[in-house]
Amino acid sequence: MATVGDIVNEAREDIPLNRKKKTNRFYLCDEECMSGSRYINFAFGTLTFIITLALFIQIHYGDYQVVPHGSVATDSYECSEIGTSILKQGGNSIDAAIASAFCLSVTTPHLTGLDAEGKILLYNHKSRAPATVIDFSGPSGTSKYLPRLVLGLAYFHKEYGTMNWKSLVLPAAKLARQGYLVSKMLVQAVSRAHAEDLYGPLEAGQILQHENLGKTLEKIADTTEKELYSHLNGINQPSHSSALKETFYGYNVYVPNTSTGLLLLHNLRQIEQLNVTKEDTERPAFVFNVAKTTQTVYLEEKVSNKFHEGTFSSVSVIDTDELYVSLVTGMYNSFGAGEITVHGYVPDVKNQDKASSRLPIILTDATYICGRRLVFGANTVGQATQLIVSLVIAGKNATDVIEGPRYHMQENGTISVEASRTPAFSGELIKTLETVSPKISPAAEPYPSINIVEKHTDDLISHSDSRGGGIASRY
User: Fold this and answer.
1) Which of 71, 261, 304, 447 could lock 462 by a disulfide, CB 3.0 to 4.6 Å apart?
2) Mean pLDDT, to the nearest integer, of 431-448?
3) What is the pTM of this model?
4) Record keywords: Nuclease included (predicted)?
């Protein structure tokens, strides 16, 4: 039985979790850093200590603390919890990401849904096999019960999942029927999109139920895996390819091998040529150089003409076997086509004339296998660049980076800032940005959120962006 201490430690994002317990899938990062007799002696002594400690903990607190840990970070606490519940049941990162993505189709209908497009980046840090990408951004769907997100997740499950399909979909179906707490971000999105006709007037904190969506999810859950996989052909087959990998300031950067991935790596190369140091990142000139470089790339590559930002929601997962998953989904507009089907979900806008700008990202220390490893996603190259330079060059804490102020590149290279955020850009930094773009406009709310999971040695830190209203879940 879990104690009050367990619940507090599980829910708090600011407490790093360190797995030093023995499991039947035993893998510690430190194993990669030791060998020979030193490792044997260390392992024997550590094992003796762990057994003694585990027995003591079990006697006093029960079995919960000796379970190996993982983490899921999403825009919804319910969805992060569903993800970690899958990990607790023995599922891997793929299983957890699938269950969390289905959950987000319920709790964040302004951002994603059963007809949403998306990209998935998967990397096995234990084997160091090349990272892979699954992209279901193209048009697809065989029936109203099997729209785009369903088929994308079905393909992901077919290739890498370990738990049965039904167990990954039913938690979302149950949540849709029972209801969930409406977030402030959903209320903001309804107001901004004038979408009151979809769900009626909403207030943050009220319980919202989706009965028809719940029934649809149950039908999806009851679809046999054989039948489900039979639809994965032709136009419904997501693309499956190797990820791009490049080194930036001593970190391996893994991104999709699509135009946005290429564009991000190109931007990072331009920034690396500036030869800035960690000390430089504290100066306004650093903000100017990064913003100016990014603006130049946006203008030269005509980014606004090639890509649409749309909506964005992400799932970041690390499990006990060092499987890393960054899954990003979204629609062309907030609430997609602006209507709800009889099956309870919002279809996306079709006949899109621009590619998606969404980017799943994984970073790993290029020198030290036990160094920092970070899993997150971004909605644009500009967002991704700001995050990476802060995490890598400045070496900042992941939570501080996620919660820090961000600017956004607009059409024609202009810049918007998140004016209502706290912390906000200082007056000095605003003036610096005005030297890049004389017209600084306020960014529209709700702001895009970034959710991150990080490991350093065997310490686990995760954080869901307050912009999205979620809370990461760990155990």
Assistant:
1) 71
2) 92
3) 0.88
4) no
